[in-house]
């Protein structure tokens, strides 16, 4: 067991919520002049990047990262999670990408897809969330 790595955290939901979010790059972001989150109080961290099944499969781009795609990428992730959490057995991730103006070849993470497929897709995502 180890202490939480994140210094900052933002409470998600109600002020008394046990859930908070942070950013593993908080020091790097602060170095770029972006503000740091308030000190967090998390005892447990859950990795939710593209190295885990809980990560966002949609990217800003492979060769060129377009900051202008940040909102569509987040909106696509929200739609994807809603479909998964609604109990879908199959999710057409490329179709979700297209609905948000993203190109499947350029804006979908292949490494994440391997993790997703190995965990049996939506079922694996729901199982991972239930284990939290």
Give the arrangement of secondary structure elements.
Elements: E1 10-11, E2 20-21, H1 26-31, H2 70-85, H3 93-99, H4 104-107, H5 110-118, H6 122-130
Antiparallel strand pairs: 1-2
Helix pairs in contact: 2-3
Tell me about this structure:
- The chain has helices at 26-31, 70-85, 93-99, 104-107, 110-118, 122-130, and strands at residues 10-11, 20-21.
- It has a two-stranded antiparallel sheet.
- It has six helices and two strands.
- It has 132 residues and is mostly helical.
- Helix 2 (70-85) packs across helix 3 (93-99).
- The model has no long low-confidence stretch (mean pLDDT 81).
What is the number of beta strands? 2
Task: Please list the strands of the largest sheet in the order they lie side by side.
Answer: 1-2
Order of helices and strands: EEHHHHHH
Supply the number of helical segments. 6
Keywords:
132 residues, mainly alpha, two-stranded antiparallel ribbon, globular
Short description:
This protein is mainly α.
